[in-house]
């Protein structure tokens, strides 16, 4: 991610605004939030059956099986008819393993015994048709492999090295844990037919900006499967699929990261049955400027995205990403994305907002910077239906600790809603916040210009408004003129709220429909 540029509301104005709005506001000291049903970290979510977004098993040919039958992913490498070798290593044979990896023949399976392997450098794979298989991923917090788990410990590895560092065609890794990698736990780049199954990536300490940035990190790849994995304590994203075409991310658990699960500049993503809890932000979909892959067709179903209120611990100096500027309590944000369908998910207890829909111009206001992706800054066609919102969200933006310097957008939203609570009794951000930027310049004659559809969702009892057009450009314009009470009131007046099933957001999706279901 890239640094956030909130040019329409200068940070000096926000600093003054936050002080100005120290007004008596409506508060709710009691904890009347519904129980979101948070499973234990190692619990696999119920995969369900029979829905359009149901489980999609892995076929023997590297493809996927959906409810409609087998859909085989093509392969540009195969081990069929080639010599295949199996190498076995146990703890204490780390040097032998590294020597073998440095001279690895294609179509080799590496079996790792139970216990703990100690490494002082990355495990680097540069051959095709490689399988790495351990004895089990263990459980959260397990730093030492047991009788049925394999832990790859990189605590003493060289600085700025990954755990597993892979460039490969037809690569599979399963049943192991990567512990305390110095950089990324598992970086898989420029690869195809990648299967990551039952892997745990973890850093020992919580909330440290010196932790590695990414847990599971396939990037610039094709045909990627991430399933039944766990990721904890990453200083950027626990599970990240970026700049990739065709991915399935399912039945994973991401907790205690800055971002739980990220889908970035990716085409054709099926993201289902995951748990994203206790992160700064839970499950996000976005494009970034300067990347030629224009992300599209993302299906998000049967995920639990609740209680993502962890304080943001991403490094500002060491990170080039906006993740350091995401306010705590963001369930999902969709940025510069298109053709995104969200159904049968659960959101709740996310202090800032359940879902934010943002323009790419909110992070990079120069459209020319988006030229590589065919000017892919607009968000478009977001269909949110048949989900469950359990409540308790939007009541304390950025956990009540706004920081205009580090998280300016969150500070602006929090300040405006603080006024709304004091002056209008609006006690929280609605379930869906749209920044109102796209299309730019905005055509006011279009009631729903980017086709956000919000229908048939289960909402907390008594919900009046579910969607807000925040109109960031107009709000920021008023505040830039000075943080006076009159300007704050005028900024609030630019925001517009809509109940579910009210026009213009009661639309029925987009066409053609997604084929990822």
Automatic annotation (TrEMBL):
<dbReference type="Pfam" id="PF13229">
    <property type="entry name" value="Beta_helix"/>
</dbReference>
<dbReference type="InterPro" id="IPR006626">
    <property type="entry name" value="PbH1"/>
</dbReference>
<dbReference type="InterPro" id="IPR039448">
    <property type="entry name" value="Beta_helix"/>
</dbReference>
<feature type="region of interest" description="Disordered">
    <location>
        <begin position="25"/>
        <end position="76"/>
    </location>
</feature>
<feature type="domain" description="Right handed beta helix">
    <location>
        <begin position="177"/>
        <end position="287"/>
    </location>
</feature>
<dbReference type="InterPro" id="IPR011050">
    <property type="entry name" value="Pectin_lyase_fold/virulence"/>
</dbReference>
<feature type="signal peptide">
    <location>
        <begin position="1"/>
        <end position="27"/>
    </location>
</feature>
<protein>
    <recommendedName>
        <fullName>Right handed beta helix domain-containing protein</fullName>
    </recommendedName>
</protein>
<dbReference type="InterPro" id="IPR022442">
    <property type="entry name" value="SO_2930-like_dom"/>
</dbReference>
<keyword id="KW-0732">Signal</keyword>
<dbReference type="InterPro" id="IPR012334">
    <property type="entry name" value="Pectin_lyas_fold"/>
</dbReference>
């Amino acid at each position: 991610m890239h640094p956030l540029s909130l040019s329409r509301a200068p940070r000096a104005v926000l600093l003054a605004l936050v002080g100005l709005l120290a007004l008596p506001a409506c508060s709710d000291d009691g904890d009347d939030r519904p129980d979101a049903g948070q499973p234990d970290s190692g619990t696999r979510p119920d995969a369900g059956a029979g829905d359009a977004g149901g489980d999609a098993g892995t076929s023997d040919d590297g493809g996927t099986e959906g409810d409609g039958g087998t859909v085989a992913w093509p392969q540009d490498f195969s081990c069929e008819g080639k010599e295949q070798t199996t190498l076995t290593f146990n703890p204490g044979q780390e040097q032998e393993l590294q020597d073998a990896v440095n001279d690895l023949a294609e179509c080799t399976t590496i079996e790792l015994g139970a216990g703990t392997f100690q490494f002082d450098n990355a495990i680097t794979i540069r051959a095709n048709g490689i399988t790495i298989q351990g004895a089990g991923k263990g459980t959260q917090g397990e730093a030492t492999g047991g009788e049925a788990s394999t832990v790859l410990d990189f605590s003493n590895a060289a600085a700025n090295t990954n755990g597993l560092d892979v460039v490969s065609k037809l690569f599979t890794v399963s049943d192991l844990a990567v512990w305390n990698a110095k950089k990324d736990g598992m970086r898989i780049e420029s690869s195809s037919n990648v299967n990551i199954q039952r892997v745990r990536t973890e850093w020992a300490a919580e909330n440290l900006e010196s932790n590695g940035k990414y847990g599971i990190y396939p990037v610039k790849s094709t045909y990627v499967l991430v399933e039944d994995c766990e990721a904890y304590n990453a200083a950027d994203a626990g599970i990240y699929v970026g700049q990739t075409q065709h991915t399935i991310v399912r039945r994973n658990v991401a907790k205690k990261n800055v971002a739980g699960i990220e889908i970035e500049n990716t085409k054709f993503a099926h993201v289902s049955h995951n748990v994203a809890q206790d992160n700064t932000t839970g499950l996000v979909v976005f494009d970034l400027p300067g990347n030629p892959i224009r992300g599209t067709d993302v299906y998000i179903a049967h995920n639990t995205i609740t209680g993502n209120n962890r304080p943001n611990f991403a490094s500002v100096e060491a990170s080039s990403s906006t993740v350091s500027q995401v306010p705590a309590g963001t369930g999902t944000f969709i940025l510069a994305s298109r053709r995104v369908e969200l159904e049968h998910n659960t959101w709740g207890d996310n202090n800032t907002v359940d879902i934010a829909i943002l323009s790419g111009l909110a992070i990079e206001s120069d459209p020319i910077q988006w030229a590589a992706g065919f000017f892919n800054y607009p968000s478009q066609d977001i269909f949110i239906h048949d989900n469950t919102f359990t409540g308790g969200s939007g009541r304390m933006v950025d956990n009540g600790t706004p920081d205009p310097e580090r998280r300016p957008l969150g500070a602006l939203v929090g300040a405006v809603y603080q006024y709304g609570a004091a002056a209008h009794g609006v006690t929280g951000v609605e379930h869906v916040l749209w920044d109102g930027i796209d299309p730019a310049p905005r055509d006011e004659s279009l009631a729903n210009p980017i086709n956000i559809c919000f229908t048939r969702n289960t909402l907390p009892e008594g919900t009046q408004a579910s969607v807000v057009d925040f109109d960031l450009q107009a709000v920021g314009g008023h505040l830039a003129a000075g943080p006076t009470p009159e300007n704050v009131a005028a900024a609030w007046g630019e925001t517009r709220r809509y109940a579910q099933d009210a026009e213009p957001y009661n639309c029925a999706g987009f066409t053609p429909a997604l084929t990822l279901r």
